[in-house]
Amino acid sequence: MVQYVGKKVRLEKNETVRSLAKKADISSGTISKWETGKAVPELTILELVANVLNVNPWDLVRFVE
Asked: Which pTM was predicted?
């Protein structure tokens, strides 16, 4: 199972959910769902978010059993 762990990165980069959503052109509700574990991002969207945060996409997810 894949888990989104980008909240830590987002906070380290001093980004709010709203500012990240605007820069990545996605809804803030979508990011909130990822951060609460209700959904996981598609790979193409994950890459957009990673580019905005200037990190590798794999820094935003982890694999859990």
From this structure: 0.89
Residue partners of 4: CB distance under 8 A and separation at least 6: 34, 35, 37, 40, 41, 60, 61
Q: What is the pLDDT of residues 44-61, one digit of tens each?
A: 999 999 999 999 999 999
The total domain count for the chain is 1
- Which range of residues forms the domain containing residue 39? 2-63
Cα 37 from Cα 3, distance rounded (Å): 7
How many angstroms separate the CA atoms of 48 and 65, rounded? Answer: 26
Q: Residue 5's Cα: distance from chain center in Å?
A: 7
Q: What is the pLDDT of residues 1-25, one digit of tens each?
A: 899 999 999 999 999 999 999 999 9
